[in-house]
Amino acid sequence: MKGYLIKTFLLIPALIGGVLVSHAEESDSLGMIGDNLDLNAVLETFRTAESIEKFETSINSPENKINNLDLNEDDLIDYIQVIDNVEGDAHALILRIDISEDESQDVAVIELEKTGPENAAIQIVGDEDIYGEDYIVEPLSSVATGNMPPAFVVLNVWHWNSVGFIFAPTYKPWRSPWRWGNYPKTWKSRKPYGWRTYHNFHKGRHHRYHVVHVHRVGNAHAVYHKHRKTSQRIKRHRHYHKHKNHNGNKKHNGQHKKNKKSHKKGHKNHKH
Questions:
Q1: What pLDDT score does 34 carry?
Q2: Hey, is 110 helix, strand or coil?
Q3: Cα separation of 124 and 137, whole Å?
């Protein structure tokens, strides 16, 4: 009996730990379609890209497991186009998916602008129909402030490979040549991963970036709004997608349906 009690007491912390880990993972879910494109992973891929063409190839590569989006719900991952819209030193690099021959949906936009002779600021903004309102990811930089906690500052990204490429005198704004039904030979679609599996691929990248709710790259953000494309189909199903069932978890799947009903009642920023 004593041995049984000892084993039980040893087991309880392990069970509690498992529950806490599970809850932490759930809190990382937006409860929206954007769960299937990790913007931290996208921005990290952009940071090291040697060109925008290679960046587009990398985020669509099955080996990198970054793109997990199935917007038209045909049980196959969709191809993400990258389109750079430029005004002066402001760039709005749109990540867009054709969900049919005549309908497109923006997923996110990388907003980049030159702020000085060797200074540049960047944010990636998730489209509100995919990620909810004001879901913005930017590079993380902290500075010590005496005995106070570190304060966040805007990181200068001038040294990033991709930024140097874009602001080179020979750069021509990249516009993806690929469209619905016409994709590169290297593109091979596949079934999307369940959310838990996909989340585990990229959670280790999050230490470089953080989520904010303030637009800091104003000129590029203004450029983007002139070119945004959305789909009524996505607006109707922004919270619940059939493929978002987290590895077959029916309870979690049902929660998405509840979230959709709550959203109609005005809980726009509900997270679970």
A1: 94
A2: strand
A3: 5
